[in-house]
Amino acid sequence: xxxxxxxxxxxxxxxxxxxxxxxxxxxxxxxxxxxxxxxxxxxxxxxxxxxxxxxxxxxxxxxxxxxxxxxxxxxxxxxxxxxxxxxxxxxxxxxxxxxxxxxxxxxxxxxxxxxxxxxxxxxxxxxxxxxxxxxxxxxxxxxxxxxxxxxxxxxxxxxxxxxxxxxxxxxxxxxxxxxxxxxxxxxxxxxxxxxxxxxxxxxxxxxxxxxxxxxxxxxxxxxxxxxxxxxxxxxxxxxxxxxxxxxxxxxxxxxxxxxxxxxxxxxxxxxxxxxxxxxxxxxxxxxxxxxxxxxxxxxxxxxxxxxxxxxxxxxxxxxxxxxxxxxxxxxxxxxxxxxxxxxxxx
Length: 346
Description:
The protein has helices at residues 3-18, 26-36; strands at residues 40-46, 53-62, 65-73, 78-85, 92-98, 109-114, 134-141, 152-158, 189-197, 207-214, 220-227, 234-235, 248-257, 260-268, 274-281, 287-289, 306-315, 318-327, 330-337. It is mainly beta. Strands 1-19-18-17 form a 4-stranded antiparallel beta sheet, with no helix packed on it. Strands 2-3-4-5 form a 4-stranded antiparallel beta sheet, with no helix packed on it. A 4-stranded antiparallel beta sheet has the order 9-10-11-12, with no helix packed on it. The longest helix is centred in the first third of the chain and has 16 residues, at 3-18. The model is unreliable at 10-18 (pLDDT under 50).
């Protein structure tokens, strides 16, 4: 038994003694749903250049402005982009911040997601620095195409997350790869990841990464990895923490609502189409899945194919649910809210 698995056993024993691994009750899950639901679709807030696609928004606060990291697919591969807003509704693209590197393991794909964000629901949503830098994890790959296997996870860092300048990569290799001590559920390709800092070290390390991955059965599930330095990562346990058996469970985002952890994620093909939902946990390890109404699902011409890949925040009493919409306007970034803003979709 390696040290990570040993740590898992000790954490589980301790958690069981405290009741931290107990399922979240139906009443608590309903309260979360009532708090986070966004039944009002505002519309498209970012559209790509002609012939391209946008994907995977992640929104943060820096100084007195809002920023969105998102990814652009140019029919060759992914590049990571940055946009800015003063009101969370109107967004201005600033440019690229993480690009593919010819001749490297990420030669065609570099799709980034912000890390170490303040995860408190209704909090600042600022990014926390570590070792004097701001961090992101990213999906990388050397082959052309839309998410062509195999894909791995890397890390990048910057001193200025609000500037459209290239983030640096401290390593010339992935931190997690499908052929690097891979497990039964992540030995084909690795997708989106979200890293948080856990000062209580519930999983035995300072940093926890949630990521979705595909095994040889073709299903995508969500699991965990842990680190103390953001550079060396170990898979946590043998099994995923979110598994719906088939289709896709992906794009996790972690927030803290009261005394519960909430994971927003999307589902596809184990129920019709693609949609956003959530799970909840007391200890970051054992998760209870919501089985009620979806948070966002296809309903409009511009998201009738897919409404998925969530990033959800609460600011000034309003819940903002950013997501990737696929419909008659192509693949774009859209927004749903907890109150009706009576906007006409762009």
